[in-house]
Each structure stands twice: as C-alpha cells, then as structure tokens.
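I'm stuck. Please check this protein.
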Amino acid sequence: MKTAWTAAVVACLAWASVFAAEGRYPKMLLKLSSSAFKPKGSIPKENACDGADVSPALSWSGAPKGTASFALIMEDPDAPAGVWVHWVVYDIPAGEKGLAAAAPKADALPDGARHGLAWGVNAFDRVGYSGPCPPPGKPHRYVFTLFALDKKLNLPARKPKPELVKAMEGHILAQAELIGLYGR
C-alpha cells in the first residue's frame, strides 16, 4: 500500500514538472494582501459599517503570464441569510498591483475598473464597497477573492456577482484569497 502511494506521488510530481516546463500553469502564485489587516486578522473599524465604511487598501503580486484584467469579490459566508456579497469590482487593468484605500463608491474607478452591485444575498442594490456589518455575536469571516483573467470582460457597471461569475467562466488564470474577521 505504501509503495503504491509513493509511486503515485512521484508520478504526480513528474507530471507537475512537465506542466511547469511547458508553461501550462503559472509558476508564480497569485497573492493578495492588505496593509489594513493581516490574514485572518481583524478588519479595522474604519473599514466597517461602524466606522467610515471605506474599503481597505489591497495589493497583489504573482499574476500569471497572459493576465489581461483582474476581478475582485468580497463576501461574508457567515451571514445568517446566506453568503452576503459586500464588494464586486471587475475590469481592473492588468498592470495594476492593488486597489487604494477608500475606493470611490461610483460606477467606475479612476483606473477604468467597474463596480458591480453588492450588499445582499439574492438582491443587490449598492455600488461600491460596503464593509462588514454583522449582527452582534461571533465575528464573521470576510473573504476577498481576486481573480486573474485572460481577458477584459467589458461588462457595463452595476453587474451583480452572479453575472460576473458567469462572464469569468473559462477565463480564470489564477485566484487568491484573503480572509479578515469582524465582529460586533
């Protein structure tokens, strides 16, 4: 049993080196971070509904070759009503290395990226970032997911997450995740 398992691992590693040599998957990993909080750390009050409700600064590195744009989704998987969408941004130019703090709550950002609709589970009605605002109790997880895409989506502003996810199908080169916590 142990020998068969070892042989399988060796075979997988051999195939992985072939794929890497042929450039069939990114050699660098996409990484997402924030200067406002550490991974699985507390999101500051200024980035929540209890404070100024401004977006935290985000930065990324390791975009794979062929990246034409980025998209970002922030959601709360611990919301009582279901996964709550807090922020949707797409068509972030490939040359960008992050999003500045306090992104304007407008259809478009200065770099040409577009905001989708957020703030809900099934119905979405807000443009731009809407920070953590959980009910009192245990802190919730807020998941920021960055997608490196092989094309610019050219979607108009105000598309909700389901439409963004559908448009990204077959175009995701890599993705990174950052989780922050917030409780009241």
About this structure: The two ends are 51 Å apart (CA to CA). Confidence is low (pLDDT under 50) at residues 1-23. DSSP finds two helices and eleven strands in the chain.
